[in-house]
Amino acid sequence: MKALVTLAALIVTVGLGLAEEILQNKELTISGQLDIQDFKDANGHPISVWVIRLPQPVDIAAAVDDPVNPNPIKNLEVAQLACFEPKHLAVFAKYRGRSIRVSGTFFAANTQHHFTRALFCLSQATRNNLK
Q1: Using CA atoms, how far apart are residues 91 and 25, in angstroms rounded to an integer?
Q2: ∠50-13-47 over CA atoms, to 5°?
Q3: Owning domain of residue 8
Q4: Which pLDDT tens digit goes with each residue over 32-85?
Q5: Which of 3, 86, 118, 129 is deepest in the core (most CB within 10 A)?
Q6: Largest CA-CA distance found in the chain, in angstroms, rounded
């Protein structure tokens, strides 16, 4: 199953039904499991980043007029969280390993500091009260 996109509210509830296209740089809300994942940076040093594991893979349309990432992102299962503020870290610490709802925008990885194929630029994080 793909994500159900409610365009009027710009909300995506992952794993609940038919999918419309998810657009990069378009505000939406997703639910998934919050976790920390370990990677190696460009110099081979270990680094840990916050990620959201989606309950079902999603497809994200290519960004319009993006010469760096002209292709869509297919079957995304994990997205690195980005753009968060220190206030979000309290929510992250409290709900690591649990379901969380986050609002923001997807964008394609484009630097050596991006460890998943797409990142989610966070504007809001709350405990998912659906589960």
Answers
A1: 23
A2: 10
A3: 2-127
A4: 999 999 999 999 999 999 999 999 999 998 877 777 777 889 999 999 999 988
A5: 3
A6: 44
- Half-sphere exposure of residue 75, counting CA atoms within 13 Å on the CB side? 0
pTM of the model: 0.78
The DSSP 8-state label assigned to residue 18 in this structure reads -
Confirm if 40 and 24 have CB atoms less than 8 A apart: no
The answer to whether 22 and 61 have CB atoms below 8 angstroms apart is yes
How many domains are there within the chain?
Answer: 1
Query: Is 121 within 8 Å of 83 (Cβ atoms)?
Result: yes
d(CA 26, CA 45): 33
Question: For residue 27, what is the domain's CATH number?
Answer: 2.40.50
- CA geometry: angle at 110 spanning 126 and 23, to 5°? 55
3: its two tokens: 């994500």
Q: Which residues pair with 46 in a beta bridge?
A: 40
User: In the structure encoding, which two tokens stand for residue 56, read together?
Assistant: 């079902």
